[in-house]
Structure formats: C-alpha cells, structure tokens
Write a structure and sequence with these properties.
Layout (H helix, E strand, L loop, with lengths): L11 E2 L4 H6 L1 H10 L5 E6 L2 E6 L2 E5 L11 E4 L1 H7 L4 E4 L1
Antiparallel strand pairs: 1-6, 2-3, 3-4, 5-6
C-alpha cells in the first residue's frame, strides 16, 4: 500500500534534496526563529525548482513534476517544532 491510499487530506509532501537541507540547516533555523509568518515559495534557477522560505533558498525540489495539480504550499510548523524536521505540504 502506498502513502496516497491513506492521504485523507489530499496533500503532497515536497521532497527536498537532503544534502542541501542539511547544508542550509542553520539558515532554516534562523528563518523559523526570526519570522512570525513563514512564506514558502517555489523559485527557478535555470530549469531547476528550489524551495525558498521568506526569500531564503533552502533546497532543490526533487518531486516538482507531481506539483502540477496543487495550488498552495505551506510549512508544517508543528512538525518542525516537535521533531526538528522541515516538512512542506501542498494542497489543491
């Protein structure tokens, strides 16, 4: 069984490049500490999609082709504060 069979909220989790996330972990922590509102955005460097949080590039997005039907992205802040892991979700 796949994750999507139990995806009751019909959301997609962005897959980010792990090496870049680890390299930018300090920047990510600063964004969570310094900003009250987190604004994720997808930007392109050439043809490669990247995730930016409040205009700070975090990592390359590895599953961008599956985002075509989604219109809103957001940060799961509770997950970050509870587990220390950055989770970006997409909604239709």
């Amino acid at each position: 069984m796949t994750f999507n069979e139990y995806n009751y909220n019909n959301e997609l989790i962005l897959k980010l490049n792990k090496i870049e996330v680890q390299k930018n972990n300090e920047k990510i922590s600063e964004v969570f500490k310094d900003y009250e509102i987190l604004k994720p955005k997808i930007i392109f460097n050439g043809s490669n999609p990247y995730l930016a949080l409040n205009h700070i590039i975090v990592a390359e997005i590895e599953n961008y082709s599956s985002l075509e039907t989604f219109s809103k992205i957001y940060v799961d802040e509770d997950y970050y504060y509870n587990y220390g892991e950055l989770i970006i979700k997409c909604k239709k």
